[in-house]
Description:
By secondary structure, the protein is of the alpha+beta class. The chain folds into two domains: 102 residues, no CATH class; 254 residues, atp-gated p2x4 ion channel fold (Sandwich).
Amino acid sequence: MKKYDLDELFVYETFKIVKVKDRRLGILYRVFQVAILAYILFTIFNDESYLKKEPPIPGAIRITLQAPNTFTNQPYCTGGDLPCVYWGANEIQYPSDGAGFAFFTTRASVTSYPPGTCNFLTASSPNDPCVFNPITNPSNVIVPKSYIGDIESHTVMIEHSIRGKVNSISLRNGVMDGVLKDSNGNTIRRISNATRTLTDPKANGDIFTVKELLDAAGVDLDGPSFAPGAAPGEINRSSGIVIVIAIDYANVKLKVDEIKYTYRPQLINGAEYKATENIYNPDGSYTIKDRHGIRFVFQQIGQIGSFNAVSLLTNLVAALALFKVATTLVELLMLHVLPQKEHYGTFKYEETHDFGDFRKGILSREKENNGEVSAQP
């Protein structure tokens, strides 16, 4: 039966401090330490590790449309495939107030269905003659299919607010600075209290033209529509489009009490949008407004936070563990790369005698035979 030396099997390794007097190793070690320290400081300030962050709780978003003081006769009104009608802002925006979304009409038609011998709302069976059918019921076209003229010059005012769940943050965009960026991340316009008052001294929100938002999303209303339901040759102005605008909130770097936001518009490729407005008139007639247009959907995202000492210390302690990397790199160079690696290894590693032999007295007798004096354990 094979015998095992338990002292060899259960060997204990301990650290030994060896001062290696070699300037090359010392300089490398300090350089690595400085580089790691710079990385730690950069990470803490760049990633704002001193903040306790959380996603913002969405607040109210209100979108208001306003017509320009004077309309411009756009090329698509004079040389397009459809005529143009000029509607007011309240008629273009449907519904007039949406929570987190807005729909602006770019193409519309209006049809009126005169009252019949009975009320359309009182049909009580599938075969009741009072069942309303827009195909078979007689109708009068009030507005044929038409584009909404000069929709690009209308202005949009966006108001939004957020609050924190754990943090005591509660802000509206009127007290924050913002940026409008295009779909490629390029800055289109910077927003501050100074720029808001230039546009409208009484403005409570950020004001853009419809064209600015379309350009930021990279949309051409007169470009071809790629929606599955679009007719051959139909353009975006006719089929309608969907644009998602993410409002990305973040802390201003090195200013823990200030929050900023960024508008990031993005077109949803292949998505069209239409809405049908049904109006039952007091005289018993029925009016249907068929609308196609731009649907803006707003989403509030990001991370906001406030200073927290525990978060700072937690991230700092975790980062300080990187200093071990400096030691590891220098020792790899010392033991495996530099020409004197064998000499370094001699000082680095030391193996003791087998203390099992000490206990058995074997090592003592060997030393006595060699003329050495040894103390018994």
